[in-house]
Amino acid sequence: MARDYAASYHRLSAPFRRHPRWVTALRLTNRGIEVVMYGAYLVMVAGLAWRGFTASGAWSHLLRLVLIPGGGFVLLSLVRRHLNAPRPYEQWPIDPLITREKTGDSFPSRHVFSATVIAMAALWLDWRFGLPLLVLAVLLAVIRVVGGVHYPRDVVVGALCGLAVGSLLFI
Predict the structure, then answer these.
(1) Counting runs of H as helices and runs of E as strands, what totals does the chain give?
(2) Could you point out which of 9, 46, 83, 130 has its C-alpha 20 to 30 Å from the C-alpha of 95?
């Protein structure tokens, strides 16, 4: 962590602060990516469930699609709760661009983990579906840091955990 994260964050967020519409766009993009990711996951689960009635092997794919990301989510949540790392706005005098009142549970980022593991699941099913979602996961990681709700290490580790758990689908 930088000696003075507040100064680094103020430099990082300054362009947004000069343009209030950019702050609105940042928040809407954050929310939009969340909706797209969770919607994509529901579409994948529903699609495999539907195919399960007609295609052999679809039920085993559905089981993997639910158990592997779900198990990773639960494990990551337990680790976060145990570590209970403070968020940047708790440790530094910053005003985050993304309004949050939650304290602790910053490391690793569960939003970025979820987006990454969903993108990996989509890659597992069809790379043409998964690749754009992977790009959105990276964008979400950047937004969470610029928004002031996570440190860079939080989103990097969240993404790496998502890649690791998601790669289990390919085994």
Answers:
(1) 7, 0
(2) 83
